[in-house]
Amino acid sequence: MEKTLALIGSKWKVLILRELSSGLKRFGELHRGMGGISQKMLTQQLRQMEADGLVRRRAYAEVPPRVEYSLTATGRSLEPVLAAVAQWGQRYLDTQGHPERSGENPA
């Protein structure tokens, strides 16, 4: 569990995996799809995920430069894990995440 969290434990990495699960994306598409992340942070996270073997980066020798990102087979193998986490989160929200539904008073 520790290794998995080390690889995908940041908020941004999980969102990058979510964005790339639908297929190949250019940097700008990723950036727009993940509102709130700076270009610098996105670049750092993508580089780390590439070094970890989760993301593939393909640069084309064009002007202007074109760079595309996709999940590797290892990155794709995380999709069921992320789906399970998403399902758990939804169940949590449905039961305990809304104080008015669980009988608790909001803080």
Automatic annotation (TrEMBL):
The keyword Transferase does not apply. InterPro entries: ArsR-like_HTH (IPR011991), HTH_HxlR (IPR002577), WH-like_DNA-bd_sf (IPR036388), WH_DNA-bd_sf (IPR036390). This is Transcriptional regulator. It comes from Desulfoferula mesophila. It comes from the Bacteria. The lineage of its organism: Bacteria, Pseudomonadati, Thermodesulfobacteriota, Desulfarculia, Desulfarculales. CDD domains: HTH_ARSR. Residues 1-97 form the HTH hxlR-type domain. It holds the Pfam family HxlR. One of its GO terms (biological process) is regulation of DNA-templated transcription. One of its GO terms (molecular function) is DNA binding. Keywords: DNA-binding, Transcription, Transcription regulation.
